[in-house]
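Lines hold sequence, tokenised fold; shown next:
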Amino acid sequence: MEKQLEPQESLHEIRQMMERSSRFISLNGLSGVFAGILALLGAYIAFQYLQTHYSIESYLMQNNNAGSYSGYLFFAADAALVLLGSIGIAIVLSYRKAKKKGVDLWDKTAQRVFINLMIPLLAGGIFCIILLYHGLIGMVAPATLIFYGLALINASKYTYNDIRYLGMVELVIGLFAALFIGYGLFFWAAGFGLAHIIYGAVMYFKYDR
């Protein structure tokens, strides 16, 4: 029996080595859950800001008319804090997972993921700045979701395939947000918040438990 198991164990080890060399497997599902929670918290803070400084009706009207909105700096700072917090948590949890598995966190595969992720994200960031320059505030939320979805799809070939599905979900939500301009905050909460929590929970129970 032991002799029969040895070839199977060897094949399993070979598959693990191939997976480690070709795919970034240090992503932690809990980082997605925490990112979603932070996104919902950021959306809640933004919503409270709207209720305090503007009526929801006037906010929707300004977005639907593609007018400039004086509080966009507040939203930019809010989104930046959510992003930095999510990245920080992802790095810490991924480092712990990589250390547990005995692999290097910043290997060539991780670098490929980073490069393929950043190309669409940088393009999307510049595009959002252009939208703000032209006063197209209502299109910023859809653009962030769409470019983020494209970034995940682009980077998924170097990590778990599940990320491709999350990218597709973000892309679809972004397209709906572009169709219903003025409700971007709610779509933003759904895409960056709820979708991340569901994805992170599935990833955790599938790969990390």
Notes: Residues 34-208 form one domain.
